[in-house]
Structure formats: structure tokens, C-alpha cells
Amino acid sequence: MSFVDLIFLICGAIAIFSGWRVFCTDSMVRASFFLLISFIAVGVIMLLLGAVYLGVALFFMMAVEMMVMALFMVMFMMNPAGLNPMKMVHQDKFAALAGVVAFFALSAVAVFGDFPDQPRPSDLDPVVTLGKELLGDSMLVFESAGVTLLATMIGVVAMSSHRGRYGDANAGSRPPGLEPGGMPAFSGDQEGSSGGHHHHHH
Amino acid sequence: MTASLTNALLVMAILAIGVYLVAIINRAWANALGHSGAGNPFTAPFYSAASLWVAPANTTEAPDAMAWHLAPVLYLTLAAMGLALVPWSQNLVPVDLTTGIVLWGALEPLATVVIFLHGWSANAHLSMLGAYRYVSLGLSYLLVSMFVLIGVALPAESLQFSAVVESQAGLWNVIRQPLGLPLFLLVGLGISFWGPLNFADSNDLAGGTSSESSGRARLVWQAGRAVMLVAFSAIGATAFLGGWLGPVLPGFVWMILKTMVVLAMALLLGQLIPRFSPDRFLTIAWVLLLPLAFVDLVWAGLEALP
Amino acid sequence: MAMNWLRQLAAKAPVPVYPLLAGNLRTDIQTMGLDPRIEWVASPRHARVLLVAGELSPATDRAFGKVHDQLPGPAASIWWQGQPLDSLADGATILDKADDLGRVAHQLQVDLLSGKHRGEPALCPDEPPEPWQGLGDIGHGGEGMMGGKPYGRSMAMPTDDLRDGLQLDPMAFSLGPFCSFLPPGLEANVTLHGDVVASFEVCSTPYPSLLPGVFEKALEGPVSITELELARARHYLHQLGHALWINQSGTVAHAVFAKARSLKPGESLNKLKKQLIYTGFYRSAGADKGVLGDSQALMTGGVAARACGRGSDARVDDDGYRSLGFKPLVMDRGDAAARWWLWLEEAQRSLQLAHDAGPGHVKTSNTRSVELLRGASRDGQLPEDGTAMLEDLLPGLEWSEAMAVLASLDLSAVQRAGAGAEGTL
């Protein structure tokens, strides 16, 4: 068994173990970071496969993503950060069954599948090749997806922010009438800040 | 195998010297600014380190034990990984990855996660406040750092740090892209939460994320911060000040000198400038620094056009 | 017991000491911190030695125990200006003179490191303050996903936000009375929304500040203006130093305390003034916050009132000062930066007055109206505690801004020390 095999086995074990722990912990913060550990182990496996850029990119993508996810879950979910213990899973029996079936199905593909034998050419530079692929023929797709996402994010922040350029965003606002031009369903001082209490469902 | 062992030893040695160097320069600045209690810059760091090493450990009520113990070690490890990417001279690069800049870009968000865990895991309100405050500001640094580093990768046409140095043979990036180094230095102060950007471990939270730790855990944490700042200075010297390039003296001497200049500057800023308000800094980061980073990137792109 | 080489090295480090202030002694503590053999730390977790300054009252026993037990053991206490607690009285280290702190603390550190001092017993029982009270199938404390108080705290629920409409779960906790960044004695129940203070309820007011001896005498009869103004300059510099420390300029703060220790009449503070402007201290956290309203300004008095253009300076009623051409310094911005700015300006002016009064030994003449360090005494009436205004002033500010604003205000009541109290100067 070579050094690379050993690293692969260790990382594979870490990825599976921490992936399993995600569903056992009672805290959203811990769950996020167990998932991060799992992804980092997968990233190392990608490095072993010679996908230098993708492996490293997975590290920073997942680090930012899990950090933001943990933060937002704590902000928006009831029972933030598992301060009070709670059951974190729904339909766990079905999900576990589906997971096991999927695992074995994918493993079966990996083990019994007939893969073409195409060794990597020795002069191939994976980073350059990937760059040519991303910024060559597929550039339009990637760039339009990227710009759309960015515009969405900026738009969401601008629309949801209370602080507007000309004062509070909801100052003087009025809920729509029940019929065109009619009275709103309810009115009062608390409109600006009401509505938030409907967020409690899980 | 021997080569990688030598490289590992080299990184360890730079790490130890780096921590010592930060302590010396920091104390020297403190003395220069009129701090009477900073002590002899050369011996006092050993005393303080020994004092933390032998100090008793402590624990808090119901901490997340694993994260609580691992966070300082992980932070130091991430800083050491950053240090390993630095090309000290043409032939002396501990880890010369073709995606060095991307790996450096991955270390910063991972450090953010570790800093958060350090504050969160203690299960105490002041340290948790430091952790959340850090994360809410961290994203704004990360973007700036990414754009600035892509800016130096453009003229090099490579994501490899040694190629970035070689691309500066004609003109250093600090002149070619004047916005880069100041922005990068600011990110460095932010990620190692030093001085004006110390939002994580600040005095208004009685030490923030490290307010609950003592002894060796605190020593490792402080060492990690110091190494992170050294790594930032070294990467800054590599990316903007031409790395090992320079006349007469051997390459690694130039590299060490440049790193020390950047480090000394960062530490002086850290001592002199008081902390911003997080709210104001967030506005500055998104409204001023991020657009400046865009300008830097466009500048670099136009400059790199054939 | 012999020490190994690591412990011998460690014994040479400055002793990390947590100052637990059971009296309004911050100025003295700041001066004592200039001793290179000790180093003040902001959290008891970072300390090896606890300095208990002042007389503990039985009301704070529980709070004292909590701070005491946070020092990682073995740790030891030093008692200054007060009697040791009965449970710790056996073999307690008592400090007679403030100057001795460095030597005594260093000796304690050596004893702790060598194992000669075995540390003090814990004062609080080692058990969770809120015992586990879980119910339900996984112990979550109630029916379904919600409810219950398994750790003595109920499920956090979002409440209306003060700032941007993003509803967050509030975090409530209490701080003080021995917190390093609050005025000594101030105990508060704080509710935070994220980083924003939603409510700040004062549970116990800060310890009253005792008048320095020379001010005490100024209430009785004529005193030398030089002496009075030097004490004033010194006090303002210490206040400014604390604000610098809160905003992470510990080194500059240390230099300010060192300067305050040896002030000379007529000395110029221009270098410090320029340094603070150019390094952006007047733009640091909280600088543009904490604007006082009219009644708040009048209640606070002194520099805080003059910083919002309200209030006067009792020194104009004094013939001695009038002979020196005294005019009050007034600003109209009223925020924290204005108060910091005015502290430094007042210190500078006090040094100038001390110099001008020097040759002729000009003395004060009015004992009924004396400008104190905070506010003025009029006909024997001393300024009262004003911390209640924090409940209106701090909500809506971010935590670091709130703490900086707190460091720009001196709100504790002023008291006469009475006979036999000296040494604060």
C-alpha cells in the first residue's frame, strides 16, 4: 500500500465519520463544522486525484460557506447554536435508509463499473486546462451565472435592509388595501417591525 | 523525503524566529512610544513565554472541549501552512504549489472558522461576542484579500508565488499596483486581529475570544497570531516588494529584510492606531476598501494587457 | 522546592495581576501599573495574582467569589486598603504601601511557581449554577421542539430589532461589579441584539470617588492653585488613558499614565495632542456617539457639560483664578470625542494655570463654589451619582461604542474622604 493509498483511506474515513457526526450532534454550529471537516477531507482526496485547483478551491468555498451557514442558522433558527438541546433531524429513519441505499449504489458503481483506462498525459497542467475550460467555451455560462448571483445578493441586501439612503426603508410605507384603493387589512404603528413573529416555524 | 524533512524543519525554524521577531519588534516600538514596562526586547519575550507555559490551565463551564482545545493549535497550524508557501529565495521554497495563491486564499477563511470556534467553544458571553463580531467583519476582509492577490497573479500569469516574484523582475508590484500592499496589510491586521482591527480579542470584551483561556492555550494562540502576521508580511513582501529580487545581497537576505520592513510597519500601526468601531469599519470595508480592491484589479488587468 | 529552568525564567516575567477594585481606585491602580514587575490583565483568567483594592462589602461576596475562582489555580490574592475576607485571612498577603506592589507580587509569583504557596481555596462550590432539568424524549425540556428550561434559560426568541429590522435573539447577561472595562462597582444587566445594546439596566451604582486631599482642603480654605491644577491635570490624563486602553491603544495609555505621574507646571502636552489627532483616536470606536441631552449634561457637570456647550466652570467665581485671566473651555459637539478632547485641553490648561500661579503662589479664595474633578461643589453640595442616565444613553449603540462612551463619562458620585484619608494623591 502506497503513501497515497494510506492518505486516501484516512481522508475517506474522516469524511464518512464527520459526515455521520453531522446528524448526531445537537448543535447547528457543530453540525456545520463537522460538515466542513467532511468537505476538507474530500478536498484532500481531490488533491490526491491531481485536481489541484478544485481541491484547494473546495477548502475556501466550504470554509466560507459553512461559516456563513452556521452564522445564519444561529440568526434565523429557533434554538440557536443548540443552546437548548433538541432533536436536530426529521424523518430520520427514512433518511438513514435512503442514505445507506445511495451509499451502496454509488459504491457499487465505483467497484463494479467499467471505467475507461485513460492515464493523464504527463505534460498536462490541470490548472491551465481547467482555466481554459472555465474561461474558454463555457465562459459565457459561468460568467452570466456569476454576475446573476452577485446581482441577486446585492439586490437582496438592498431590499431587506432597514437603513435606506433616504432614511428607514419602511418609513411612511403602508400595506396594500384589501381592494384596490381600499383600506389595508390592518394598520397601526407596528407595521414596520411586525411580521417577524411568523418566522418561528422550523 | 529528506528534502521535505528539510523544508519542514525550515518552516519550523522560521516559525519560531518569527514569533520571537514579532515580540522583539513589538516591544521595541512600545519602548519607543514611551511604555516603561515593556522590558528588554530581547529577553522579555522568553520570560513571558515561559510564564504562560508554566501557568496553570483552566476550563470553563461546559465548553465544547474539542474545539476549545483544538482552536489555538489549528490557528497556529494554518499560520504555519501560510508560512510554508513563502518563497524565501529562488531555490528555497518549502511548498511551491502551482495553486499557492489559492491555498493562501483558503487559509484565510479557515482561520476565520477557527477564530470563531475559539470564541464560541468557551461557552462564555464575552468570548462569544468577540467570535461573532469577528465573523461578521471577516467576510469583508476576505474579498479584499482575494481581489488584491488575483491582481498580482495577472501579470505573472500564474497562481504560483515563485512565478509572482519572477514577474516583478522589471518592476515591483508595489509600484505597478500601488493599491495592493496597503490593502493587503490591512487584511493582515484583520486576520491576525491586531491593533486597530482587533475586533476579536479586544479590551472592551476583557480579551474577547481569548478572555477565558490561560496558560499554554493562550501562549499557542498568541504565537499563532504572531505567525499569521509574519506570514502576511512575508506574502506581502513576495507579492508586492519583489520577494527575493534585489542587487548584491543573496536572495533570502533581501526577502528577510523586506518581510521585516512590512512586519515592523504592521506592528507600528498596531500600537499607534486605536480600534475602529466595528460598524464604521464594516462600512469602510464595503464602501471604500472593496471598490478600491476592484480598482486595483482593473488596474492590474489593464497594466497586464499586452 | 527548587524550580526548574522554565520556572526560573517564568519568575522573571512581569506578574499578571487582575485588579479587583472594591473602591473607586482606578487612578491609583493605573499608576501602580507603571511598575515593570507587574502587568494588569483584563480578564481574571489571565492572572496569577489577584489584587483586591479597597474594602469589600458583604453585598459583593458572591461576585467576589466568582472573580476569585476564575483565576486558574494555584493563585493568590494581595489585599490593599482593605481587610481580607475571613475565609482567605489565613496567611493573607497584605500590601501596606502601593509602591511595594511590584516586590510583593513578584515574591508571590516566585512562591507560587516553586510550590511554596499552594494557592487559595475556592470560594464557590464546583457545581453548575443551573442544574440540568431536562424533560422529554431527548431531554430538551418540554413538549415537541420547544419549551422547557433545561439549563435554567428558556429558548431564545427573536425580538424586534433597534437598528436594521433584522430580528435577532436577544442575549441577556449581567456584568460587574468588578469588571475590568466598567467603572468599578457598576453592576448592570445588559441585553444585546447581536452587537447592539438593547437595554442597559444599572443594578448597583459605581463606588463614589473620594476627593483628593487638595480638593478636600480647597473646600475648607485657600489652597495653592498650582497644587490643585496639577491634581486636576493628572486626573484628566488618567481618564483619557483609560479611554485609550478601551480602544486598544494600551501602549499609548501606558505612556500617558507615565506622563501623569511626573507632571510639571507649564509642561506642554502638544506632542500627545498631535499624536492622538493623527492616529485617529478622535475617530475611533464610539467617538461620535454618546451625545448628552441638556438635562444629562447638567447632571454630569464638569467637562461633560462643557463639552456640549452647557454648564459653566466654577473657577470663574474665584478671584484667584480671575487674577490669572481664567476663561472656561467650552465645546458644542457633546459626543465622546469632544469629552476626550476637552480632557486633554483641560489638562493642558491646568498645567498652564499651575505654571502661571506658581511665581506669586496664587491661592484659591472661594470655598463655597469649587470646580471639582467632576462637576462643581456649590455651598457644600457635591455631585451625585449619574449612572442612571446610562439606561437611556447606551441602548442603540454597538458594544464597543457603548464601552467607549462609558469611558468618556465620569458618573460616580463624589464624596469627601473625611479625616485620615490621604494617599489618593
- Please tell me what the overall shape of chain B is: globular
- The proportion of strand residues of chain A reads under 5%
Q: What is the number of domains of chain B?
A: 1
Mean pLDDT of chain B: 88
Helical residue percent band of chain B: 55-70%
Proportion of residues in extended strands of chain B? under 5%
Biggest sheet record of chain B: none
Largest sheet of chain A: 2 strands, antiparallel
Short précis:
The complex is a heterotrimer of chains A (202), B (306) and C (425). With 306 residues, chain B is mainly α.
Description:
The complex is a heterotrimer of chains A (202), B (306) and C (425). Chain A folds into two domains: 106 residues, Four Helix Bundle (Hemerythrin (Met), subunit A); 42 residues. Helices cover 59% and strands 2% of the residues of chain A. Chain A has six helices and two strands; from the N terminus they run ααααααββ. In chain A, helix 2 runs antiparallel to helix 3. Chain B has 306 residues and is mainly α. Chain B has one domain. Chain B is 69% helix and 0% strand. The radius of gyration of chain B is 19 Å and the shape is globular. The N and C termini of chain B lie far apart (41 Å). The model of chain B has no long low-confidence stretch (mean pLDDT 88). With 425 residues, chain C is α/β, with parallel strands linked by helices. Chain C is globular and about 65 Å long. Chain C starts with a helix and ends in a 10-residue tail after the last strand. The C terminus of chain C is likely disordered. Classes of the chains: A mainly alpha (202), B mainly alpha (306), C alpha/beta (425).
